[in-house]
Amino acid sequence: MVVDTMNSSLTPILGSYEKNDCKFLLQETKCEFISIEEKEKLIQSGKRHYSELLNKELEPSDDYLNLFFHFTEKYKSKLAQHVFILAEKINHYQEGQITLVSLARAGTPIGVLVKKALEYFFNRNVVHYSISIIRDRGIDTVALDYLIKMKSYTPESIVFIDGWTAKGVITNELKNSILTYNQENGVYIKPLLYVISDTGGVADYFASQEDYPIPSSMLNSTVSGLVSRTLWQEPESQQFHGCYINRHLKDFDYSQWFIVQIASCFEDKEIIIGSKKDNYNIDAIYARKSRQKTMEEFISSMIKKYVIDDINHIKPGIAESTRVILRRVPSLLIVRSIECEKVKHLLMLAKEKKVKVEVDSSLLFEACALIKSVSIEGLE
């Protein structure tokens, strides 16, 4: 039996989305920024967890923004079709109220789009919240309590959404966190994950396994409601995980613009015609298992070839590689081909940040980035 001991002052954040598109179950916190290099040293020294540190997000260059606009135009129909596929699956498997819970931040714009697709194509009653999940520490249980105890959504109505998978670390974190939460609270939230691109072969439901540049992966907060990466807060505090609102980037915010661009494609009949009625079938299950095995072999080969001590320093796929170059200290960007348009933005970022690029035509993904092992000498 769930006992309501919630902090009644908890208030969701809207970010820069429209009021009914998304509510972030996050608490805006004050933040002292440090450089990316200093952050990397603190993380690798073990003195601080990555979820306790933020570097100040800078405005993207004009050239990079133009590439984002180009990729949005190029891939918006494909992404809209993939959003439709996810919405169709959710419509098929979920009865009654649908409580979409996206994993902030990569899952946030996808959650907004899937909500719109469920309403547009299937006339479903949907609410969408975005909550924090942190590697090694788990999902924000205060946020889950808020949904179930304060908002009275049924645990069975909760559906988890993310943008993509890679090695499966966050997927496993989600499943373990939800199983523990269910046991401790006597409820049943389905520990299932829906994603656009399941490149790691670990999601329960997916629209594609293709490693393509989902345009929202190219930017940080400026395509995710101006909300920063989430910051850890102990559950005992009875507060949501923290975040910083990047108001200084307001003039570069394309969060709502991006949603409009993709959702405008819903009117195209080809979105439905080009999708299978229900492509979560036995072939999809085999594809997922095969991909998972291939991913495990790939990670093992990377560890051996590049003598990597920490598996978290391997970031396979276009989206993960983008995140690394934007907010970590990469040592190497590996691409399958420098002629491939899909990695054009990665090559631009690598040039800007003086990251070495290596070409490997046998690479499993279009791209893979490696985080640099930094010197921590003199770190107090």
Automatic annotation (TrEMBL):
<feature type="domain" description="Cysteine protease StiP N-terminal">
    <location>
        <begin position="15"/>
        <end position="262"/>
    </location>
</feature>
<feature type="domain" description="PELOTA RNA-binding">
    <location>
        <begin position="297"/>
        <end position="373"/>
    </location>
</feature>
<protein>
    <recommendedName>
        <fullName>PELOTA RNA-binding domain-containing protein</fullName>
    </recommendedName>
</protein>
<dbReference type="InterPro" id="IPR011215">
    <property type="entry name" value="StiP_N"/>
</dbReference>
<dbReference type="Pfam" id="PF15608">
    <property type="entry name" value="PELOTA_1"/>
</dbReference>
<dbReference type="InterPro" id="IPR048336">
    <property type="entry name" value="StiP-like"/>
</dbReference>
<dbReference type="Pfam" id="PF11202">
    <property type="entry name" value="StiP"/>
</dbReference>
<dbReference type="InterPro" id="IPR028157">
    <property type="entry name" value="PELOTA_dom"/>
</dbReference>
